[in-house]
C-alpha cells in the first residue's frame, strides 16, 4: 500500500505538488494521470526519497521510504528507464541491483527471461538499447526483489503495441496476486485499459480520484442531433447541466431522461448513449488545455 | 524480442505478510561500489591505466634516465606523476557519475541513505588509491632491479618506508581533493577541470605570486594546500610542516567536503 498525505513541494514561489492526498491500495492498479508537468514525477520522487517534500507524508507499506531496511525487496521503482550508465550492459545493471539487495545470482536470469530480453541483448551496453528495451530492463530491475509495491513512472513510454499489452498483462497479474501498483501516464487511454483506480492530477493538485468505474459512471450521456439549439433549450428548461462538443452534447443525466426530454421537445436524435469516459476525457482535456502550449483549435470549445 | 503473457510467469499465490528484511550490510554496499568502479569500459580502463602507465613510466626511466641517477627515487618520481593525475579523476568520477549518468536514481532508491553510498564510495576510493600506489611501487621496484641490471650499476633503494608512506598520504590527499570536487560539483567534466585547475594550473601561479610578493611568500605555507601537500613528496616533514598541512587540509579539503556532503544529502536526485 502507498499512502500520500497532504504532500506539498514548493520551488521558491512555484508549487509543483500542492496538498496531494491519495492511497494506492494492495491488489489494485492505481493510475496516476496528468498532463506533462502536472507534478506526477515530482510526487513519485518524493515517495522514494529522491526529492525532499516541503510538507506532508508519503509512506510505502506503512513506513517512510528511508526507513525501509532493504527497499528493493519491498518496493520496485522505475522512474526513468534512461537513467542508467550508458557503458554498463543490461545484465550488469541487474547484477548490481541483485548484489545490493543480496539476492541469489539466478534472479538476474529469471528477470531477463521475464521481461523477454535475450542473453545477447542483455550482454549489450545500454547505450545501444532502444527505449523499449530500456523500459523492459527498468521493469526487470523493479521486479528483481519480488516487491509488494511497484512505483512506475510512464512505464509504457517507448513500448510498441505488443509491449504495452505485455506490460498491461504483467501489471494486472501483479496486482491480482495482491501487489500494489502505482503507474503514471499522461495518456488517458493507456491508463484506462489497465488501472482499477485513478488519481488525476493537474498543476500540482488532485482534480479527481476514485475507482475507474466511478469516474466513468459520472460521465453522463452523449447525445447527437441535427437540431442542437432546440435540444439545448429543452435541457436548459429541464435544469440539466450539459456541455457541447463539436457535434454532440454531453448531458449530466441518464440516457433515458435525455431520451424522454428529446421526445417531448420533438427533436430527432441521431445518437443517444452513455458517454463512457467522455467526461473523464473532457476533464483531462480541460486540464491539458490550461497548460498546453498550442492554442485550442477553433470549434473544439463552444 | 517477443511479448510474453502473465501465464508464463511462475504461478504465485496471493501474497501473505512477509517478515521485514534485514538492513543492507555496509560490506555489501562496499562490494557493490567497488564493482561499479570497474564494470564500465571507462572505469575499467581508468583502473587499468594505473598499471599500464606505471609500466610505461618505469620503462621510460630505464631508457632515458642517466645511469648515475638510476635509483628507486627516479622510478618513484616517474610513476608518481601519472598517479597524481589518474587517481583524483577516479575519485571524482565515482561520485559524479551518479549524477552525470543519472544512476543515482537507482543507487539512492536501492540504498535510501545517501550517506551510506557516498561513505562506501569514499572508502573504496581510498582503498583503490592505496592498492594502486602499492602496485605502482612494486612495478617501480621491479624496474629498479631490472634497470640497474641492464646498466650494470648498483641497485639503490633510496626511498624509505616513511617516505613511501608520505607519498601514499600525499596521493590520498590528492584523491580526496578529486572526491571533494566530485561531491561539490556533481558534474564529471566540472570536477575534472576543477582538479586540473587546482592541481596543475594553480601551482605555477602561486609560485609566481610568492616570488613577486613577499607577504605571500610568508603566508603561502599556511594558505596554499598544494604547497603544504608538496612537502610530503620531499621526504621529510617538520612539526611546522605538519601543522601547515593540517590547516590547509582543513580549509581547502575538509570544509568544502562537509559543505558538499550536506548538499548531496539534501539535494534532489533527478
UniProtKB/TrEMBL annotation, chain A:
Domain spans labelled ABC transporter: 2-228
Question: Taxonomically, which superkingdom?
Answer: Bacteria
Extract the GO molecular function terms from the UniProt entry: ATP binding
Q: What are the UniProt keywords, alphabetically?
A: ATP-binding, Nucleotide-binding, Transport
Looking up InterPro entries in the UniProt record yields:
AAA+_ATPase, ABC_transporter-like_ATP-bd, ABC_transporter-like_CS, P-loop_NTPase
One Pfam family hit: ABC_tran
Instruction: Give the family this protein belongs to, as stated in its UniProt record.
Output: Belongs to the ABC transporter superfamily.
Q: What is this protein called?
A: ATP-binding cassette domain-containing protein
UniProtKB/TrEMBL annotation, chain B:
Q: Name one Pfam family in it.
A: ABC2_membrane_4
Keywords, alphabetical: Membrane, Transmembrane, Transmembrane helix
Transmembrane regions listed in the UniProt entry: 44-66, 72-95, 122-146, 166-185, 192-210, 242-265
> Superkingdom, according to UniProt?
Bacteria
Question: Could you identify this protein by its name?
Answer: ABC transporter permease
Organism per entry: Nocardioides mangrovi
